[in-house]
Amino acid sequence: MNYRSTRGNKQTLPAAVAIIAGIADDGGLFVPTSLPKVDTAFIEGLVGSSYQKRAVRVLAQFLTDYTDEELKTCINNAYGGQKFDSASVAPLTLIDEETHVLELWHGPTSAFKDMALQLLPQLLSTALRKTGEKAEIVILVATSGDTGKAALEGFKDVEQTRIIVFYPETGVSRIQRLQMVSQKGENVAVVAVNGNFDDAQTGVKHIFNDTIFNAELKAKGFQLSSANSINWGRLAPQIVYYFSAYADLLKMKKIKAGDEVNFVVPTGNFGNILAGYYAKMMGLPIHRLVCASNANNVLTDFLRTGIYNKNRDFHQTNTPSMDILISSNLERLLYHIGNGDQGQINAWMTELQSTGKYDVGAAYLAKIQSLFWAGWVDDAQTSTQIKSVYNAHHYVMDTHTAVAWHVADRYKEATGDQRFNVIVSTASPYKFNESVLSALSGESNEGNDPFTLLDALERLNTVKAPPGLASLREAPILHKNQCKKEEMAMQVKNLLQNLK
Ligand SMILES: *Cc1c(COP(=O)(O)O)cnc(C)c1O
After folding, report:
1. Residue 189's beta-bridge partner residues?
2. Which of the two residues, 68 and 205, has the higher pLDDT score?
């Protein structure tokens, strides 16, 4: 199985090379040149297996240049040991006869980014070995919070890699800052940038685009790279949990092999739900993928009209991980819907850059609507949903999950579809203490001490706070670097001299 760009390059590359490159030379994203197909026997064969074994079977379909042994090692390093606080890694929790929640937040940072960012560094490090690439890969991240910590945890002490995370001094929560500045690992660095998230992000982009600086690093044996969600090595690991959830439904005898189910996914960059699309195209019996958004409802409009238009107000919501107006991974879906029409995709992406919008027209839209349904929810409805599910089931969910739950109900009302809905849960409620507690109590908790809130939520929840968050109270601060936004490149240079 090879990979090619969504946009124009005809060149095809093995997975390992695509994972090292991250993004294609023409600015496009790497996609598989064909989609592997599996049958019922394959799916039934997953039922008795651990998550790790399921992952090996599913990923072997896509990462054909990795040996089974390599995949096994990568996957055990990512999901084995004590890294996840659930033996099932991605457990399916039964709430009532109709509702299952797929919990993707049992990893080290308590959010779904761990599912991919635990495995990507392993796949990358193995790719370097396989291809004989000698450079040390230096991952640069600008973060508004969650991704930085998840990337740090994934890359810490991974061979032939180093990671430098820049976070804005203003703009991350206290918990998020503590998570990062207490990060352990010999190859990690964390730097506070004097400025906001945009400043940090712009600084990192400048560093990536500075050819002289990059040549200078290269001479010293370093190559810059990013861990963002367009890397195929971040997308592929997410396909696994759709299969795993289906296998668990079979195991619990909630469905029979071949029965179709729906997945409802809280969506931002379209990475998570796109992995569901790949699972469906491989033959997993999924009826609809339901795309749940917040007030930044650009995807809802797109999936209803075929017009993608990012020219609209940006809203800061109580589901910050979905506050996104450009969903990069949509490009991959369009590529497959159009059977690989690179010229068309390139034209739309160019239009998006220059005008902020594009229209895919009736034929694409009809195909897309046969696979997806979409809805969105405002902050107040999100809070109400948390409260009503808590009252009915004593289940505490985070805001992003609540968006999905609400849209799942809307989907049922609108379509009368009686199939099973799996609600995809992307964060531990403890990660969003303030919003979750406010939803449950009806009172604002703004400005309250985050650890007081953690304790308060623990009193209402049968599930304990994740150790990774609770232990931050005493965690020693290991990273005190600070820099001005103009000094980020200099920081990178200095850190590379000092980091082991
Ligand atoms: C990243 C994230 C999302 C959005 O996922 P995409 O793959 O970007 O669509 C949803 N919820 C949480 C908690 C996240 O961290």
Report:
1. 164
2. 68
| Residue 361: partners with Cβ closer than 8 Å, 6 or more residues away | 306
Instruction: Report the amino acid identity of residue 279.
Output: A
Q: Confirm or reject: Cβ of 322 under 6 Å from ligand 1.
A: yes
Residue to mutate, 112, 230, 299, ligand 1, most ligand atoms under 8 Å from C-beta? 112
21 CB-near residues (< 8 Å, 6+ apart):
13, 30
Q: What is the dihedral of CA 299, 369, 279, 98, to 10 degrees?
A: 90
CA R_g for the chain: 22
Higher pLDDT, 284 or 321: 284
Cα torsion 91, 95, 98, 104 to 10°: value is -30
Q: For residue 221, what are the contacts with CB-CB under 8 A and spacing of at least 6?
A: 134, 135, 136
Give this prediction's pTM. Answer: 0.96
Mean pLDDT is lowest, of 307-311, 347-351, 431-435, for 431-435
254: its two tokens: 């909630």
Residues with active-site annotation: 113
Residue 111 Cβ < 6 Å to ligand 1: yes
Question: For residue 234, which phi and psi values (nearest 5 degrees)?
Answer: -95, -30
H or E segment and range at residue 350: helix 342-355
Neighbouring C-beta atoms of residue 151, cutoff 10 Å? 27
Distance, in Å, from the CA atom of 460 to the CA atom of 365, rounded to the nearest integer, reads 44
Contact 33, 3 (CB under 8 A): yes
Q: Which of 4-8, 173-177, 371-375 has the lowest mean pLDDT?
A: 173-177
CA distance 240 to 19: 17
Measured CA to CA, the distance from residue 272 to residue 291 in angstroms comes to 10
- Pocket flag, ligand 1, residue 328 (CB < 6 Å): no
How is residue 255 annotated by DSSP?
S
Say whether 130 sits in a helix, a strand or coil.
Answer: helix
Compute the distance from residue 230 Cα to the ligand 1 centre, in Å. Answer: 13
User: Is the beta carbon of 166 within 6 A of some atom in ligand 1?
Assistant: no
443 burial (CB, 10 Å; 0-12 / 13-18 / 19+) is exposed
Write the DSSP string, 281-320.
HHT--EEEEEEEE-S--HHHHHHHHSEEE--S-----S-G
- For 461-469, the CB contacts below 8 A with 24+ separation are 461/396, 461/429, 462/394, 463/396, 465/430, 466/85, 466/110, 466/428, 466/430, 467/85, 468/108, 468/109, 468/110, 468/179, 469/110, 469/175, 469/179, 469/428, 469/430, 469/431
**Coil, strand or helix: which one is 17?**
helix
Q: How confident is the model at residue 376 (pLDDT cuts 50, 70, 90)?
A: very high
The SS3 of residue 161 is strand
Q: What pLDDT, on a 0 to 100 scale, did the predictor assign at position 500?
A: 58
